[in-house]
Amino acid sequence: MSLAKDPPTALTPEEYFEWEEKQLEKHELIDGQVYAMSGGSVNHGRIAIRFTTLFDTHLDGSNCITGNSDIRINILETNNYTYPDASVTCDERDKTTNQYITYPCLIVEVLSPRTEAYDRGSKFRMYRKNPILKDYLLVNYTSIEMDLYHNNDAGDWLILNYKQGDIIELKSINFTFPIEQVYRGLTLTPEATP
Question: Where is the Putative restriction endonuclease domain (predicted)?
């Protein structure tokens, strides 16, 4: 994530929505500053599509909304907006807005060398402000590995590490799947850190 080129400074959410509508790229709004979202690799995009397809199929007929990387999340009680790779909300309050959701129970971020520290650190700290969030899944796209941050019934965040051969359990949407289902047909190669 990098600061957008020539962005207006200290934007309100309304100014941000209006400004971003005129941009060719997506931007996150954090503390009034806009940050350009960098493009991902082919594997990154294919993995994100797999998740939205899996979730949408699993939740067909429910009152839940599956989001792709075009659906913003408003960080609860802030004027910050992010674009995760996939999300799910089953909260009725999210059906009253058309520019963002606020109460996802599940968020997926496909990691890249450029954003991994942010996704694991300050972005996760922002997401944790939402008491509805139960599962935060971080997905590697160069090897078969995922880390699930799960908010248990006691309110503690547990970290579950998954690798080849494992079954992923997302309690937030009552869904399990073999990890290989997301990676099928992909050529996985390590990437150099920029």
Answer: 13-173
